[in-house]
Amino acid sequence: MDLLLHLIRQNKVDIYDIPIALIASQYIDTLAQMEARDINVAGEFLVMAATLMEIKSRLLLPAHPGLDPEGEEEAEDPRQELVDRLLEYQRFKEVADSLQDLEANRRLCFGRGMPIEVDRAGPTPLLLPETAALSLLAALRRLLEEADEAPVTSLRRERITLQIKLREVTRLLQHHKEGLGFRELFLHGGDREEIIATFLALLELLRLGRISVKQTKALGEIRVKWQQPAEVGV
Amino acid sequence: MLGGETVEGVESLEHSDPRLRHAVEALLFAATEPLTTDRMARVLEIDETTVYQALVDLRTDYHDGRGVHILPVAGGYQMVTHPDFAPFVGKLLAAPPTRLSRAALETLSIVAYRQPITIPEIEAVRGVSSDGVVRTLVERGLIHEAGQKETPGRPNLFVTTEEFLVYFGLKELTDLPSLETRTDAPE
Amino acid sequence: MLGGETVEGVESLEHSDPRLRHAVEALLFAATEPLTTDRMARVLEIDETTVYQALVDLRTDYHDGRGVHILPVAGGYQMVTHPDFAPFVGKLLAAPPTRLSRAALETLSIVAYRQPITIPEIEAVRGVSSDGVVRTLVERGLIHEAGQKETPGRPNLFVTTEEFLVYFGLKELTDLPSLETRTDAPE
Q1: From the CA atom positions of chain A, what is the Rg in Å?
Q2: How far, in Å, CA of A101 to CA of A104, rounded?
Q3: Which of A34, A116, C138, C153 suits C11 as a labelling partner, its CA being 20 to 30 A distant?
Q4: Is A18 helix (H, G, I), strand (E, B) or coil?
Q5: What CA–CA distance (Å, rounded) separates A49 from A47?
Q6: Of C85, C159, C160, which has the smallest distance from its Cβ to B26's Cβ?
Q7: From the list A112, A116, A233, which residue is nearest C71 (CB)?
Q8: Which positions in chain A touch C75 (Cβ < 8 Å)?
Q9: In this complex, which of A121, A212, A233 lies closest to C75 when CB atoms are compared?
Q10: φ/ψ bin of C87: left (φ > 0), alpha (ψ from -120 to 50), beta (otherwise)
């Protein structure tokens, strides 16, 4: 049907007055070309070809209205049934166009529940806790080396407990929800003991799963981010 | 009443309570398919008219331009992202299902208007074998078998599904373009 | 930039543009998992700080008491229903707990054996009004509308769904007990 409709449009002929001989020969030519290009011509195409040939031969017969078995009415145009079928098919093709438009619009609206793509492109993947601890350790060593070089400025030494540091680091990270650079956590506290206390606090928070650690590249900047305990969503 | 007796933890609410609107919001959000006002009314244990009013209010909140809006579809309502943001959302989501082929759309139109219909009947209209395309449409959940025709061979009858309406964003089958108005056009 | 060069149809946006907030809203809505600001920034092609600011604004819109809110979770953010409405959401998502009534079962068997069938035809068999019970069966997804009968008034036709087969553990409709053996039963 599709091919037939295509030929009719291509020839710009009236669908109600199809030049059957012309269309039939073009139809058969197209089938021959398809075969030549090794496209399997389905049985339906051959049925249509036969129908066209039959209509063509009936049109060649002289009209004998008086012999029409249906009686008084003028003999029906042998093309009529084909025209009806073509018109019907054409209507459905138009509906299919409308559906295609609807589909295009609808595809712009996404509902919930569609799977999202695995985030492979992420340039700064979260580090696993074990890897994160190692990166933190490397960063700590660099920090301590620098601390050794720095002159000792504080003479009064307060006793810094891990508990105090835990609270301090937690507060700091909760305040900076977008995360902090590793070094920013050590800004106030040059001395060795305090650096180590801060570091131990970070390790503890990492173990508890309260912080996440990202590193852009090996030995690059480490970002530490507060992580809310997982809440149950729907 | 959206209220305490039947569901614990939520106090009784007046019908004009904004919380009713937000209860409807929670339901529409949680459902991944369109919800009818009737279904929401039964879940909330209030009457359908009240749900409808809350829904009207809620749709005003979700005015045009927001990231999400509420569409009437398949006899119910569904929350979906606004088309303006489709390029971004599309980037986030895993590859969406492929578009339907011309053959699939054509076959679907025939089923939609002539349902229930058999494969031989579809083939009579299209003039080509339609076994494969019908199977594809069944797999995509857009049409499904619905009994057999009482003719020799008892061929299966096919009808469109609710998913068909959801897929094309139609409220109901009668939203489909009319076949008649298009027939006059000779081309 | 959230903008024209890379994604068509969306104009360039200022950082303070409310549309940025709504783009974030669309992303959070569509995603079924928590999204990090980093990921949203990459999707929207803007910097993370801007996303973070839009997110803060958006979370203000989704103030407490609404049906849906935005929670920081697992290093990212996720839209979830507000816990106040959990009882209703739970009811909605739970599988239909109630068993089918006698009337529903009776109607269902008539549809199963006589499909496609109209409500007047069902009523002719049952001898009672069947509007309500048909609606219940449609809502439970056991039957659904499938076109209209070409008779005066064009009444809707109903057929059983795939869910019907699942519900009764049937592989296909032909697995239904044959009608003949049952008609002999005097009751």
Answers
A1: 41
A2: 5
A3: A116
A4: coil
A5: 5
A6: C85
A7: A233
A8: 126, 212, 225, 227
A9: A212
A10: alpha
pLDDT in tens, A54-76: 888 888 776 555 454 554 455 67
Low-confidence ranges of chain C (pLDDT < 50): 1-12, 95-97, 181-187
**Contact between chains at C32 and A228 (C-beta distance less than 8 A):** no
Angle in degrees, CA B14, B18, B20, rounded to 5: 65
| C95 min Cα distance to partner chain A (Å) | 16
C83 neighbors C44 (Cβ within 8 angstroms): no
Q: Using 50, 70 and 90 to split pLDDT, how confident is the model at B2?
A: very low
Closest CA to C146 of C113, C177, C111: C111
In chain A, the residue whose alpha carbon lies closest to the alpha carbon of B183 is A91
Q: CA-to-CA distance for A215 and A225, rounded, in angstroms? A: 11
The pTM score is: 0.55
Neighbours of B116 (CB within 10 A): 23
Query: Closest partner residue to B147 among C79, C162, C173, by Cβ?
Result: C173
pLDDT for the residue numbered C184: 40
Chain B residues near residue C35 by CB distance under 8 angstroms: 92
Helix (H) or strand (E) holding B80: strand B76-81
Are C116 and B29 within 8 A, CB to CB? no
Helix (H) or strand (E) holding A82: helix A80-106
Q: From chain A, pick out residues whose CB is under 8 angstroms from the CB of B92.
A: 116-117
Are the beta carbons of C82 and B144 separated by less than 8 Å? no
Interstrand relation of C156-160 and C143-148 (parallel, antiparallel or unpaired): antiparallel
Nearest to B80 by CA among A212, C134, A105, A32: A105
Max CA-CA distance within chain A?
Answer: 128
Residue B117: helix, strand or coil by DSSP? strand
Identify which of B106, B180, B119, B187 has the alpha carbon closest to the alpha carbon of residue B151.
B119
Nearest residue to C46 (alpha-carbon basis) of C37, C57, C58: C37
Measured between beta carbons, which residues in chain A are less than 8 angstroms from residue C42?
Answer: 121-122
Question: A–B: how many Cβ contacts below 8 A?
Answer: 118
